[in-house]
Specification:
Elements: H1 2-8, H2 10-21, E1 32-34, E2 38-42, E3 47-49, E4 52-54, E5 62-70, E6 76-81, E7 85-87, E8 94-96, E9 110-112, E10 121-130, E11 133-144, E12 148-153, E13 156-157, E14 163-173, E15 178-182, E16 188-195, E17 202-210, E18 220-226, E19 234-239, E20 242-251, E21 264-273, E22 278-283, E23 292-295, E24 298-301, E25 311-318, E26 321-328, H3 342-347, H4 362-370
The protein binds 2-acetamido-2-deoxy-beta-D-glucopyranose (7 copies).
One 2-acetamido-2-deoxy-beta-D-glucopyranose binds at residues 259, 306, 309, 330-331, 333.
Domain Ig-like: 26-125, 147-239, 246-330
Membrane topology: Single-pass type I membrane protein
GO molecular function, one term: cell adhesion molecule binding
Length: 371
């Protein structure tokens, strides 16, 4: 059967676990040390490590000494002797909060003052009793520092390569904060750490990196900071800034203009950051014909005549440079009885022309004409 259990695998492990656990069970059932497994405090604050004896009323005992040690270190950090009182060999920032000379030693709770990073560790609380022997419990003291968090956009241009577009900093956390990002825009994070101002603290910086495009300008990415000292994660939204030259298209032509039509107009649609500063209309032949009048982004045509049978250019200027779009108008001899065809439908949409890193985009112009 032992072989069968070994073959099964886990029952053997269970058996081993029981064998390991059984010696640590208290011999006299009812004496209990009440101590939390974990206690945390903040740098510079005070914190109490509770440790109390719970004795059934039928039990009689005699506590001769309370001792606190750090796990992995045999030296005591605090001792309370029944007749000699307290002694703190390692530190002046410790005190027994309840133990008193001349009283029963049933409470070993220890206060740690002005917490430092190096106070973090596992502390063993030990009661030396007669006739029951000794009892001990271990408490993990954790020392926290609450970080300050900030997030900001990095102003970038169209580099064509991945660059940091947002920066999230969690300053002076202990343990180090965890930073993650929410983004619909793609990209990746690059995290780095450095020591914080206070000893034992860490400043975490995370950059959100992507290839800048005009589409991400004005979009949010969110930095999420998690820390042991927060009730819930802190969310910091960053509105991205990408500087880009004008992206230009011309709308308003339905492909159905005819000689003698009294009015028509074209609109120059441009996006840029910073905003466009100027619109200039012309034709591939030179200046505008007399029947076309520019009013900012609008071109008002009155009336439609032979001179309108041309290719119009809108030149948009911004602080980052000028870009053009072109549109070829084909004027018909007379009004068409047919409804506008597919070409007209696609010409009137406001799809922005994709940018290209060239000073004037003849490619853009062609897509404008042929789309
Ligand atoms: C304290 O003990 C806990 C549980 O055994 C362990 O996870 C932790 O790493 C220890 N802490 C230190 C500072 O040693
Ligand atoms: C993060 O940035 C540092 C410094 O710019 C760079 O050396 C490192 O390669 C980057 N890590 C990743 C994963 O991109
Ligand atoms: C980002 O800021 C710009 C300018 O203030 C604003 O127009 C835009 O709506 C903001 N974006 C978001 C996602 O809030
Ligand atoms: C974008 O971020 C700003 C703060 O930078 C916030 O006020 C706004 O609500 C966010 N907009 C969206 C759509 O998430
Ligand atoms: C567009 O306008 C700017 C500013 O007026 C001018 O410098 C540039 O030469 C113009 N470009 C073209 C192609 O007309
Ligand atoms: C406009 O030009 C096209 C060819 O580019 C020509 O077919 C059409 O007849 C012209 N329209 C007028 C009114 O001249
Ligand atoms: C486009 O730019 C080139 C130089 O980059 C210049 O030689 C050419 O004249 C420009 N064309 C127009 C229409 O502005």
């Amino acid at each position: 059967t032992a072989q069968a259990m070994a073959a099964a695998g886990w029952p053997l492990l269970l058996l081993l676990a029981l064998l390991v656990l059984s010696p640590s069970r208290p011999e006299t059932g009812d004496i209990v040390l009440k101590a939390p497994t974990q206690v945390h405090g903040f740098l510079g604050d005070s914190v109490t490590l509770p440790c109390q004896l719970q004795l059934p009323s039928t039990e009689v005992t005699h506590v001769s000494q309370l001792t606190w040690t750090r796990l992995g270190d045999s030296r005591s950090v605090a001792v309370f002797h029944r007749t000699q009182g307290p002694n703190y060999p390692e530190s002046e920032r410790l005190e027994f909060v309840a133990a008193r000379l001349g009283a029963e030693l049933w409470d070993a709770s220890l206060r740690v003052l002005e917490l430092r990073a190096e106070d973090e560790g596992n502390y063993t609380c030990l009661f030396v009793m007669f006739p029951q022997g000794s009892r001990s419990a271990v408490t993990w003291l954790r020392v926290f520092a609450k970080p300050q968090n900030t997030a900001e956009a990095q102003n970038v241009q169209l580099t064509g390569e991945p660059v940091p577009v947002a920066r999230c900093v969690s300053t002076g956390g202990r343990p180090p904060a965890r930073i993650t990002w929410y983004s619909d825009l793609g990209g990746m994070a690059n995290m780095s750490q450095e020591p914080g101002l206070l000893s034992g603290t860490v400043t975490v910086t995370s950059l959100w990196i992507l290839v800048p495009s005009s589409q991400v300008d004005g979009k949010n990415v969110t930095c999420k900071v998690e820390h042991e000292s927060f009730e819930k994660p802190q969310l910091l939204a960053v509105n991205l800034t990408v500087y880009y030259p004008p992206e230009v298209s011309i709308s308003g032509y339905d492909g159905n203009w005819y000689l003698g039509q009294t009015e028509a107009s074209l609109t120059c649609d441009a996006h840029s950051n910073p905003e466009p500063t100027g619109y200039e209309w012309s034709t591939t032949m030179g200046p505008l014909p007399p029947s076309a009048v520019a009013q900012g982004a609008q071109l008002l045509i009155h009336p439609v005549d032979k001179s309108i049978n041309t290719t119009f250019i809108c030149n948009v200027t911004s602080a980052l440079g000028a870009r053009q779009a072109e549109l070829t108008v084909q004027v018909k001899e007379g009004p068409s009885s047919e409804p506008p065809g597919p070409m007209a439908a696609s010409t009137s949409d406001n799809r922005p022309v994709s940018y290209a890193p060239v000073a004037n985009s003849s490619q853009d112009s062609q897509t404008e004409v042929t789309r």
